[in-house]
Design a protein that fits this description.
Blueprint (H helix, E strand, L loop, with lengths): L4 H19 L37 E3 L4 E8 L11 E7 L3 E6 L2 E6 L4 E2 L2 E2 L5 E5 L19 H5 L3 E5 L7 E3 L4 E3 L5 H15 L11 E6 L1 H11 L7 H6 L18 E5 L8 H8 L14 H19 L24 H20 L4 E3 L3 E2 L8 H6 L4 E2 L4 H7 L9 E7 L6 E9 L2 H8 L6 E4 L4 E4 L2 H8 L17 H5 L12 H15 L8 H9 L9 H6 L4 H4 L14 E7 L8 H11 L6 E7 L13 H15 L1
Parallel strand pairs: 8-9, 8-12, 12-13, 13-21, 21-22
Antiparallel strand pairs: 1-2, 2-3, 3-9, 4-5, 6-7, 10-11, 14-18, 15-16, 17-18, 19-20
Helix pairs in contact: 6-7, 7-14, 14-15
């Protein structure tokens, strides 16, 4: 773009506000501007087009023990490729309905004076979980179980569990055909689900303008996409292909913008994921694919340098509106400048918060999870998804902090590592005091200082933090693997090409440095064109990889460095938590998302919390993820 983010906002904020106001949904049917002189003119849309998606108010089931009305298997678009995934379940607190039993079902009407907690049948928000941490397909529930739903119902929320397609294409046996998956289909399906709810707003006991989505890992990334791409024209052809709702029975346009997005350790920004990984973590590693003499070591350094150039083009700014940039250094790769200092401050503040909120003795158990098990689908709960397993570097990290004096004991527990067979032993270590814990961190050299009186922490730099607690667990090309073997390669594959390369940064680096790479060890001549060839391939909507990348990058609409900036409805409320010991991605991912949101016009609040001592998990400073999520939703609704 030829203007900065601030210049664009100054020029466009008034027009954007009017546009978003026009498409903002509400529980009350909205009106569109009509030409008073053409009352006899035929409507421009078919008012009966989506009547097959009207909610059947005679088909509710009722759990009298837990006082919950529910419906399962509600197809949310006219032309689903798979009803197993493109359908949803709705769970409603009993106080919001008047129900009349007729056989096995109940005929329900909204109880206008129904109230639960802080909400009524007119003000209750909708909560929608995204359970798939690795973006496997999320099936719609086929059975009901109240387990896990109690707190949501008691809080007065309407809970909607929507299925969606995952990172790969699938097979629909009833049609004997393969259907497309991957980017951007998980987002497309969820947008269609939101539109379905708003189409049926007059029958639902809630405020359909207040839709919150929440997810973990790659599911958290989808939550961020739902929050940043409301009503984006990029998805139109995809939504039309499945018959997603476009207007209500009065002809009014229906929005898919949401009210709030919550995420834990979100995986997103895949256009820069590999370069960010190498800049923050890979440049400090000399093992395996980062060993001297390998072409991948050269690529690692080139990607780290490219990431610095990217940061300097982004117009990222801190809370004081000061530009965040990286400066060139000798010996390391761009490890100076205000952006570098900002990340160091994030780490130090997270450590200080840890010391101020942790009661010693403290037990440290390195862990990670591959996916979550938010309630709503009892089949998922029974499968055991969401159990913790070992982080890829937990043994090394544990060794770093297990030599403190005052360790009172340790215990071992087995846990299956994601993507690996068998089990790995996890050692829990107990620290009697803060000084014992600091001593353990500094067992080989003094890099962290804790001032207990002032409750401040200082670290010597990112190098020491990374090498002690966040060493890379993935090889060079962490996301866009050389052999196209990652789940992200699947995400950008197509029905005809199950996995594809997607990183333009890697392609550019290979093109610019092919002579140097070919002279180093491990190089294969096929690499010279593997990336460039894949980037030209298109999906069944004729979108190339770059276009689909934009549709899976929240910064495409949030940052003035991208062409999509300012083109969408953006959620006003955000919550982003990151376990900063995780090795699955760099801290830059969450930090850049939060920075862009904090300066985006119309965003009311961004609760960004890097959490010390936790990895790729539902990271929280204190309390549980669920209780903190519910408290956050309440605070957002109070703000409006």
């Amino acid at each position: 773009m030829s203007c900065t983010r601030k210049e664009f906002l100054a020029a466009m904020s008034a027009g954007t506000a009017l546009c978003l106001a026009a498409c903002t949904p509400s529980n009350t049917q909205q009106t569109t501007q009509q030409d008073s002189d053409s009352n006899d003119q035929q409507p421009s849309v078919d008012l009966t087009e989506f009547q097959s998606l009207a909610l059947d108010m005679k088909s509710w089931k009722y759990d009298s023990v837990n006082d919950v009305y529910y419906q399962l298997g509600l197809t949310y678009c006219k032309s689903p490729v798979s009803t197993a995934y493109e359908s949803l379940a709705i769970f409603v607190p009993g106080a919001y309905f008047n129900g009349e039993k007729k056989g096995d079902t109940y005929t329900c009407t909204v109880k206008e004076d129904g109230a639960v907690g802080n909400y009524t049948a007119k003000t209750a928000p909708i909560l929608m979980p995204i359970n798939s941490g690795t973006l496997g397909a999320q099936a719609s529930p086929t059975s009901y179980d109240a387990n896990g739903l109690t707190n949501y119902m008691k809080a007065g929320y309407v809970y909607v569990y929507a299925g969606f397609r995952g990172r790969s294409s699938g097979y629909e046996s009833s049609k004997d055909q393969v259907y497309s998956g991957g980017a951007p289909w998980p987002v497309v399906d969820l947008k269609a689900a939101v539109r379905y709810l708003r189409y049926n707003a007059s029958d639902l006991p809630c405020d359909t303008s207040r839709v919150f989505m929440f997810g973990f890992s790659a599911g958290g990334g989808v939550s961020a996409l739902m929050g940043s791409t409301g009503d984006s024209a990029l998805y139109t052809s995809y939504l039309d292909s499945i018959g997603a709702v476009t207007h209500d029975a009065q002809g009014n346009t229906i929005s898919d913008a949401i009210f709030g997005s919550a995420s834990w350790c979100p995986l997103t920004e895949y256009d820069t994921a590999d370069s960010a990984y190498e800049w923050m973590m890979g440049q400090y590693d000399t093992a395996d694919t980062r060993a001297d003499g390998t072409w991948t070591k050269l690529l690692s350094n080139n990607l780290a340098t490219a990431y610095a150039a990217y940061v300097n083009s982004m117009d990222l700014r801190d809370s004081s509106d000061a530009a965040l940039t990286l400066d060139e250094t000798s010996g390391e790769i761009y490890t100076d400048g205000s952006y570098y200092d900002y990340l160091v401050t994030l780490v130090q503040d997270a450590a200080a918060k840890f010391f101020s909120t942790t009661q010693f003795p403290y037990t440290y158990t390195p862990s990670r999870i591959s996916t979550t098990a938010f309630p709503g689908d009892p089949n998922l709960q029974k499968s055991g998804s969401g159990t913790q397993d070992t982080d890829a570097v937990t043994d090394e990290t544990s060794d770093k902090v297990s030599n403190a004096t005052g360790v009172t004991g340790s215990s071992n527990s087995s846990a299956t590592t994601d993507g690996e067979a068998g089990a790995t032993q996890v050692q829990s270590v107990v620290y009697n005091s803060a000084s014992d814990y600091v001593s353990a961190l500094n067992s080989d050299d003094r890099w962290l200082t804790y001032n207990q009186r002032r409750n401040t922490v200082r670290i010597s730099g990112l190098r020491d933090f990374v090498t002690h607690l966040k060493a890379p667990s993935k090889k060079v090309c962490a996301f866009d693997a050389i052999d196209r073997s990652t789940t992200t390669n699947q995400l950008f594959g197509t029905k005809d090409n199950g996995t594809l390369h997607f990183s333009q940064m890697i392609a550019d680096s290979i093109t610019a440095n092919v002579d140097a790479y070919s002279a180093a060890s491990g190089w294969d001549a096929a690499y010279a064109t593997d990336w460039t060839d894949d980037l030209q391939k298109t999906d069944d909507q004729s979108s190339d990889v770059a276009t689909r990348m934009n549709m899976f990058n929240p910064l495409y609409t949030l940052s003035g460095a991208y062409e999509g900036f300012g083109s969408c409805g953006v959620a006003p409320h955000w919550r982003i938590n990151s376990g900063i010991f995780q090795t699955d991605t760099s801290l830059c991912t969450e930090a850049n998302l939060a920075l862009a949101l904090q300066h985006y016009d119309g965003v009311k609040d961004v609760a960004f919390t890097p959490v010390w001592g936790q990895g790729h998990v539902l990271a929280e400073v204190s309390g549980t993820a669920e209780e903190n999520l519910l408290a956050w939703v309440d605070s957002c609704c109070q703000q409006g």
